[in-house]
């Protein structure tokens, strides 16, 4: 094994793992990402229940989802430890790649948390919520981590299925297991949001991905094609996001706010086609940051608008 580019023998790995702190173990669960997924789960459940979710069901849904998402993150840390050691953005931050957390421990934590989370959703909520969580886990921790990420430029798009599952988990929990048109409108809004969020990040970290041999779109096809696809996915996301109003799940507050933010997002994406090459990364950083604002606003307005509506 290597850490920070230096080969480690098994005894050295064991020595480092013995010194691992609670914080090291917590870090492999990517709690920042987990919390973001919980916000999406909460929003989906709130809309599906028309603003009146059962407090106990809400608790079990969030706990179960948190365990599944955190477990999937641990599994990702376990499998990606080889390429994490090659990228500047991860080799100093990922505890498994650094040798601080033993790979076997990360695998055990990931499998255990995932299994418990799925059990919570299955036994305390419904099988539909558990099924959505399982699909998200399977796509992220196996299909994306093992296959898509390392073999195709469509990795971000195909892996986006897992990122769009949390609101679907919440919807299933809040609707008693019904996944109608509103649920899928929300799913595809989150699904289409993924490429305009992750592709600008991939542009910023192109050399990292190139060093690790990961076929991210900007590495294989270049910035021009990457920017074109960001525009395509953003343009598709805007009308899909507004369908929740046309389907009568959300009111006009949601429609107006998301239409304005969506158009701003789209204008920023289109600007990328015209910025000089030496400003590509500045533009990518702005789009990446705005994508986070858009996602947070989406989760908030989903809750606020349906409460008023």
Automatic annotation (TrEMBL):
It is an enzyme of class 2 (transferase). It is found in: Cell membrane; Membrane. InterPro entries: Protohaem_IX_farnesylTrfase, UbiA_prenyltransferase, UbiA_sf. Pathway: Porphyrin-containing compound metabolism; heme O biosynthesis; heme O from protoheme: step 1/1. One of its GO terms (molecular function) is protoheme IX farnesyltransferase activity. Keywords: Cell membrane, Heme biosynthesis, Membrane, Transferase, Transmembrane, Transmembrane helix. The keyword Phosphoprotein does not apply. It catalyses: heme b + (2E,6E)-farnesyl diphosphate + H2O = Fe(II)-heme o + diphosphate. Its EC number is 2.5.1.141. Its main location: membrane. The chain crosses the membrane at residues 28-49, 56-79, 101-124, 131-148, 168-193, 230-247, 253-275, 287-308. It comes from the Bacteria. It holds the Pfam family UbiA. It is a multi-pass membrane protein. Converts heme B (protoheme IX) to heme O by substitution of the vinyl group on carbon 2 of heme B porphyrin ring with a hydroxyethyl farnesyl side group. Belongs to the UbiA prenyltransferase family. Protoheme IX farnesyltransferase subfamily. Carbon 2 of the heme B porphyrin ring is defined according to the Fischer nomenclature. Interacts with CtaA. This is Protoheme IX farnesyltransferase. It comes from Alicyclobacillus fastidiosus.
């Amino acid at each position: 094994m290597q850490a920070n580019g230096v080969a480690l023998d098994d005894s050295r790995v064991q020595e480092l793992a013995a010194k691992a702190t609670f914080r090291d173990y917590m870090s492999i669960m990517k709690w920042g990402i987990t919390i973001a997924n919980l916000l999406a789960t909460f929003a989906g459940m709130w809309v599906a229940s028309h603003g009146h979710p059962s407090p106990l069901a809400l608790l079990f849904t969030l706990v179960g989802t948190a365990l599944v998402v955190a477990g999937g993150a641990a599994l990702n840390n376990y499998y990606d430890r080889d390429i994490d050691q090659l990228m500047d953005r991860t080799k100093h931050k990922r505890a498994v790649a650094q040798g601080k957390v033993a790979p076997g421990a990360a695998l055990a934590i990931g499998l255990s948390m995932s299994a418990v989370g799925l059990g919570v959703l299955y036994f305390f909520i419904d099988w539909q919520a558990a099924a959505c969580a399982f699909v998200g886990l399977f796509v992220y921790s196996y299909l994306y981590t093992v296959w898509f990420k390392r073999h195709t430029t469509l990795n971000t798009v195909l892996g986006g299925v897992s990122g769009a599952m949390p609101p679907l988990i919440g919807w299933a929990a809040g609707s008693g297991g019904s996944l109608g048109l509103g649920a899928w409108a929300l799913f595809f809004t989150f699904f289409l949001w993924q490429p305009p969020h992750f592709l600008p990040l991939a542009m910023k970290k192109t050399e990292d991905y190139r060093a690790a041999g990961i076929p991210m779109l900007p590495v294989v096809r270049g910035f021009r094609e990457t920017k074109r696809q960001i525009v395509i996915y953003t343009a598709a996301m805007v009308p899909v996001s507004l369908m929740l109003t046309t389907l009568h799940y959300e009111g006009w507050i949601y429609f107006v706010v998301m239409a304005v933010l969506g158009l701003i997002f789209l204008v920023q994406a289109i600007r990328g086609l015209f910025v000089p090459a030496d400003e590509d990364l500045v533009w990518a950083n702005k789009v990446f940051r705005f994508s986070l604002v858009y996602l947070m606003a989406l989760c908030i307005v989903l809750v606020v608008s349906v409460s008023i509506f």
